[in-house]
Batch of 3 targets.
Target 1
Amino acid sequence: MKKIFISLLAILILSMLTVANAKTIRIGTEGAYPPWNNLNAAGELEGAEIDFGNEACKRMGAGCEWITQDWDGIIPALLNGKYDIIIAGMSITEERKQKVNFTNGYMTDGARFSVLKDSGLANISLAGVAKVNMNTAGGKENAAVGQMIAMFEGKTVCVQSSTTHANFATQYMSTGSDVRLYQTVDDHNIDLAAGRCDAVLTDVGSAIDFMGTDQGSNAAFTGPTFSGGPWGDGVGGAIRKEDTDILEMWNKAIAEMSADGTTATITEKWFGRDISM
């Protein structure tokens, strides 16, 4: 029994040392969600999370190997061992926690509806509410949500599938609106610009990025900025439940980068504002 215990202890120590001294950390990302992560014209990954992940790896004494993966299969690919962590603008939600562990949140960005400027739906203020945190919403905030839902009755609302935005639209709007699901934000942005969507619901930063393009120049925000509830507790890295050592390493790097302002600097570069946690 003693020999078995010593052998198991040796294996455990060796496993921990292997992770701690790993030369490469494999990171899964979508590569289609600017400014969080995106493949540029040269086919290179760039964005806030790419800078963030590279800096975290440096602090852990490891290199980063970035692996792109379609969003719909990004968690299954993690569970099948394709990479060690997902860094892909993924909101921390209770539903996802059933399958994976999350690092501490490192960034958060609200969600908002975008419409066309000439649609008659642009820049509408509801009940004087600019922000709605679904975790702490009171009567005024809930009234604004109700008004927003009513405003889009009979309209086509487009969202990326398997996202918190899709969860919100499906839960709150599917009975009165035509909720359409898309594989990527680029796909529904194209349809918004072409008038095939009355509205899209996405992260504020992603919408701002689209509005800065020629194609998105006719898009505008409407209604309040949403957070909490279906949108979870910020954005974090997803890790297999058994990889507790990797989780500890990332949380340490995340805490350091938050404390010394590194994450804030990265988000200001890519989002034009501090969305660090």
Target 2
Amino acid sequence: MKNFIIYITVLVVMSVCHRVYAQHDVSSILEQLKSEKERISEDEKALLKKEVLTINKQLENKEITVQEAQDKKTEAAKRHALNIQNRHAIIDHQIALLNRNKELHFDYGLRPSSTSNFSIRGVGKLNSEDRNTSKNDVRTYDELILAFGLNNAVIDGESLNDTPYKVGGSKFFEIGWAWRTRVFKNSNVLRFHYGFSFQFNGLKAKDNNYFVDNDGQTELAEFEYNLKKAKLRMDNLVIPIHIEFGPSNKTQTGDRIRYSLQRKFRVGLGGYAGVNLGSRQKLKYKIDGDAVKDKLKRDYNTGSFVYGLSAYMGIGSTLLYAKYDLNPLFKDAEIEQHNVSLGLRFDL
């Protein structure tokens, strides 16, 4: 739990840092917009000057009369003045839009002018598909991973129906950060999905049994009092890697390209490897009517390294998730057990 709290603290710090950076990014964009207004005025004036020179040359070559030249200059001056006014209005509306929504993270796809090289984007709330605003084509997105569900163990020579662990009481929880990178340049059908996660796997014993270390063998034994709960929890830090495939939505605005998995079916196949951060057993029981809670932090012969296979499938950010530890649950056990999990996963 201590490591979990540390990790949550890191996430909060990252979020605060992102918000500080976001506020700086808003100021930077506003400054760019102000500079854009000045550039618009200079561009239109330069175009007017060039057009006047062309009219004067036509007058010198007697291609037009003095009155025609004057009329053309007047018309050109009015046109470029209106251009400045209209283009400035576009920038002013974008500034107002940004100021009004700077705490959000909406992508409005606006550009100050046809020659601008930046777009107006809200900043503040983390959004994995809009995190990089400087690239026209983003190939890597990042996201928060949350997963939870049922946990149990596959025991050699026994079926899951005969497991000594409660199906409903044994659960797992996983939280992590992941990156998704497109494999092909012009297609998002195949992606690498990788990152790091904290896994918390729990096993709740049946029939008033609890976990004991008997000469290097972790076994279940009858507890001397009436147990309300006997649960062993193993905390792991792992690096998961998956190959992910499935269709996606492609949007293109000018030279800006984005891919979205919203409402799209996808499948991920891969595995994970990491370290066991610790194991502990929690006991709840009563002695003479008094409630007792014991927390026993021991290794219970669990291995230092964990590795296994995992897969997920689903639509959008909601996925069915399964994982299976290839490493034995307990070291040097006479009968091998392997942790197995099935539940839901959310890529946020």
Target 3
Amino acid sequence: MRILVTGLAGFTGYYIKQVLEARADTVIGLKSDLTNISLLADEIKLVNPDAVIHLAGISFIAHNTAVDFYTVNLLGTYNLLHCLSIYAPNIKSILLASSANIYGNSTEGVLTEITPPNPANDYAISKWAMEKMALLWLNRLPLFIVRPFNYTGIRQNEQFLLPKIVAHFVRKQKTIELGNLDITREFNDVRTIAEIYADLLNRAPIGETINICTGEGHSIREIISLCEEIVGYSIQVKTSQNLIRSSEIQSLIGDPTKLKSFIGNISPKTITDTLQWMLNHPQT
């Protein structure tokens, strides 16, 4: 298949490209700015993709300019779908990446696709709005939505939590400033996520919304302890109030039942596997 990937140069895109090319697909990275609908239309006409993986967007929750979330994540996606509906007659499958952050500060232990959304920040609201907008295109486009829970790996920017922690251990720093150590998250491996995305794109579950998760959660305290065990030394953790968000989501763990119904059982890498990979292959 000729697969157009938005955000191919980003963290997830790097691994998506490896997986798709290993499956003999042709991978083409979108070059146009999603906010420039004229250039976007011209490029989609030229590429004429069979499938699309839409990863591009503002994903760092603490991004300084809130309006960017809506300009890129919502309006940029609208522009993409508009152009695909007109200029991509061979399109068979479109994966739109939303986020598990749309669930917000849920009181449920494990979140399913029917858990009521309760977005707690601009990033999450922009993704929730994107989902609702995208559903308006279902009669014209073969799209489906994925809600990935947290994932990490080599090449992820240090502004994100796990790469920051790993970098401190790699540099053998004595102290690290962190926020709430008791929040619980899934920290899945980006290599697993890339395989799942490729499987779903091929399956094309049109009209569905699917949690991308394993159901395994870990606290930040646990992550620190595992890193200390792997590298063989301890680090002093200083709690910074500046790093504790007022809208902090305490627990974000997903139910993978629906995901497995489409692609079968998954064999995720353990958090220890992922941390060893990151700690033993420091990024430059």
